[in-house]
Amino acid sequence: MSDIANVEAKIEELRMKMYEAYNQGMEYEEVIKISQELDHLLNQLDSMKKKRAPSPE
């Protein structure tokens, strides 16, 4: 599995975790913490994809 695929899998896991935490009425701080982790992974994925994309000429 590629690095990008690994990050995408982690993103999906965190999305589900955040959705479940929200639906179960977990503490707001916990949902925010998960959201911040998700944001970090999304930024990481974006950076990885930009590095792999061919340069426009």
The N- and C-terminal alpha carbons lie at a distance of: 30 Å
Category by helix and strand content:
mainly alpha
The description of the largest β-sheet is:
none
Helical percent range?
over 70%
Structural Rg? 14 Å
The count of helical stretches stands at 2
How many β-strand stretches?
0
Poorly predicted residue ranges: none
Give the overall silhouette: elongated
Q: Residue-averaged pLDDT, rounded?
A: 92
Percentage beta strand: under 5%
Topology order in helix (H) and strand (E) letters:
HH
Can you offer a commentary on this structure?
With 57 residues, this protein is mainly α. The chain has two helices and no strands. It is elongated and about 50 Å long. It starts with a helix and ends in a 5-residue tail after the last helix.
Please render the helix and strand layout as text.
Elements: H1 3-23, H2 28-52
Helix pairs in contact: 1-2
What is this entry, summarized?
This protein is an all-alpha fold and 57 residues long. It is built from two helices and no strands.
Keywords:
57 residues, mainly alpha, 81% helix, elongated
